[in-house]
Amino acid sequence: MEQNKFEFNNETNFDKMNMGTSMNSCSCMDNMPTQTMMCPPVEECPQERVCHRYICYEVPHIMPCNTRVINHHIYRHTYTPCFTTCEENVVSNVYDQRCCF
Predict the structure, then answer these.
(1) Which end of the chain is less crowded, N or C, counting CB atoms within 10 A of the terminal residue's CB?
(2) Is 84 part of a structural domain of the chain?
(3) pLDDT tens-digit profile of 16-26?
């Protein structure tokens, strides 16, 4: 039997309980009746469970690494003497004195 959202296991008379409450409220802590009375459920504040989850990601990074090769060309000049000879020929023409030229 449902009466103002109260459930009673047996027929209950409020006059017999002597609780001093009206029919619209339920006070389960006052003079406890000899019969079992069910009150509506009391909504409690929600409790929160916190579960920390760590999700690891592997993020590949491409790092260009340029290798610069610098070739240094060094010319070391050495001098080796190379002896040469040269020869000049001087021609001299000697003519006898002739009359006709």
Answers:
(1) C
(2) no
(3) 444 444 445 55
